[in-house]
Amino acid sequence: MKRNKSVSLRINDRCRREQIASNETLLETLRRLGHTEVKCGCEKGDCGACAVLVDGTAVDSCLTLTWAVKDRAITTVSGLGTADTPHPLQTAFIERGATQCGYCTPGIIVAAHSLLQNVTNDPSDDDIRYALSGNLCRCTGYTKIIEAVAEAARVIREEE
Prior knowledge:
This protein has 5 helices and 5 strands. With 160 residues, it is an alpha+beta fold. The chain is globular, with a radius of gyration of 16 Å.
């Protein structure tokens, strides 16, 4: 891939200048830059494993061209919290046992974050199901995932 376009990217609050190809997807760029928390699933927008936040809204990075998000805030699941100070969603997923293999978890947490920040911080189970409808998990029945998102929402409301 010939990288002949220079763009400014802001990933997890860190700015950098990168050479990209005009047809390079954000997924390809993030993985090349070492963001292995962004998973490569279907590469056609069906599974949500590659979801990241762009200006706070969840997008499938496999369908997003990198040049289209230049100078915008790109946040991966790693940008939400750390091992020492996890985001309430990350904590809830661990405490509720909402992960199995974990492959889909980063994308699901990103989609849930978008729901809680942009739609409602008091979601119903149906709100959560709808917000996560673009994310596939082949290991669970989603019950613990929905419980974890609801628990995180409760914690976030209490913190506010």
